[in-house]
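FIELD: query
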Amino acid sequence: MTNVRMIREESKHCFKVLGSYALMAFYEDQPGADIVNLREIWYSTARSTSPETAGHYVDETRGMALEFVDADWQLTRAAAVLKANGNIAYGDCFAAALAKSHQAELVIGDKEFKVLEDEITISWL
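FIELD: result
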């Protein structure tokens, strides 16, 4: 299951993990947009607009210069640990777990991540 993405910011040579909040902001013309959780993008868009529009957004996202990161057991377990220890949506825990495992910055707008500020670097949208 592909549910998070990671990009390399060439100027700093570091990884950033982008939360789905950022991509939804991009598609809804809100400030502070970038990319991530494709399943959340699809179901949110399908629910609010249509499955066709959701498919278009996912196709467009897949065409961007990003790296797909599949959720293997190690990432899934790390996400589950974060879920067990906090009040964060399980799907969002994957982005946080990926950021933590790669010592990357998490770019997100969801305030539920405040509880993780001591564990990972967060860039707030």
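FIELD: remark
Residues 73-85 form the longest helix (13 residues).
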